[in-house]
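ingest -> validate -> predict -> emit
validate: passed (alphabet ok, no gaps, 208 aa)
predict: started
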Amino acid sequence: MLTYETFMKHAEKVCKSPSAGVRPMLSGVKHKENGDLICTDSHRLYVAKELHSRDDGAVITPRGKIVDGNYPDVSRLIPDPLYAKQSLEIELNELFRAADMIAAVGGIAQKSMVEGTKAEYKPPALDFIEDAIGYTNFAVKISYSFYPLRFEEPICSNAVYVPDAVKLLKAAGCETITIRFYGSMRPFTLTNEDENLLVLILPIRKHS
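emit:
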């Protein structure tokens, strides 16, 4: 079962995003009056239902500091599952192994590409395509098959976000997740069995 302390620990990665430097409110977690917790860095969104007892709508950093100001309304960003183009159930441990492997290999390849230059480091891109997720550039190609599962529409994500999301879901005691796709350039979601924990991730345009 997910605890408040565990959610805040995993939310720290989201709250430390560069987005928080531009929008200070994003350095904290919104404690909604109904007990929900929300954090976002404008590229991903975590929502945990009924996990606290505050009634003041405070925004609090993972280190316990209250942030003044109005947190953005993110409710409109969460898609209705009824409009999903595809819903798949995947074993959490299998998805974690695949995403973590690709993030590691892709990260090494990307760093080698920019080593000794002033080029900005870009995190590896994870492709959901056909029956696999994978990473490809001029130097390396790696993929992990989920056959007989098949992704109906190709989609590309920041490969760092998926392992982060899976680590949160694993910490919540989840064994099987539901991943829902809404279109190649629409946010996709990962949820636990009880649907009381949701991660939303924006897709990316694959960089060359």
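Residues 81-201 form a domain with the DNA Polymerase III; Chain A, domain 2 fold (CATH 3.10.150.10).
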